[in-house]
Design a protein that fits this description.
alpha/beta, Rossmann fold, Alpha-Beta Plaits, 4-stranded antiparallel sheet
Amino acid sequence: MSLTELELETAADQAQAIEQRLFELGAVSVELCDAGDEPLFEPPPGAHPLWTAVLVKAIFAERLQAEIAAAALAENQPPSRLSPIEEQDWVRAGLAGLTRIHCGGDLWIIPSWEPLPDVAGGVFVHLDPGLAFGTGSHPTTAMCLAALAEAPPRGQSVLDYGCGSGILAIAALKLGAARALGVDIDPQALQATRRNAERNGIGPDALETLLPDAKPPAAGFDLILANLLAAPLVALAPTLARSARPGGRLLLAGLLDWQAEEVMAAYRDDFDIGIGAERDGWVLLDGRRR
């Protein structure tokens, strides 16, 4: 994989539209930064202020994607700057400060190099993220884990769509779920999920892994978890609706507060859905299948 960063400067009233467009064009991440040295003071409730001049930084998995995105934005925006990003093991680099995490209730996430905490009745998920996203430290994952800890899915069937390291599916099983299916487009994520499942004493009979192109997930899941991004969550609405049993619970994460309405709108035909939690500008959507 040859990562490429695209940079451009724009006005504040254009920044969020450009961010959404970059995700549509294939960006794997987009960051909005101050293009100058402008202080940003505490906004009023419900406001989403930006600097007058905004520097937009987007990362693409391939240079060709970045070039296509730059060409698509060229008509209405200043020229973009493209630069290669030196390859490294980003996950390993980000694990330097990772430590055990108390998710709420009895649930703990324990990195493979950390000792167990001295607590009674703890439910411990032993984790080595490997090359897949999902350590429990990001607000999106943390809100999903807290929701599981608050209402353990005992005896339930669980679908973890975009399973990454397998952290959510494994936590659900450790909290009493009967079975789980982890789905991810990245074969390395499925490898990480299986490895983490083995580390937690969970066999393939309890946690199955699947590429989405292999076959569609079965229907009738009691609990569906999807910690992705807003655009794929919208696109997946029909798939996740087909996979949920009537009355089944849906937890969606990976979206910012200003993206919540768009994602909820995609699910309202099939789910009673609302904002279940908010943390650091990120939201967790919590729904029930009609």
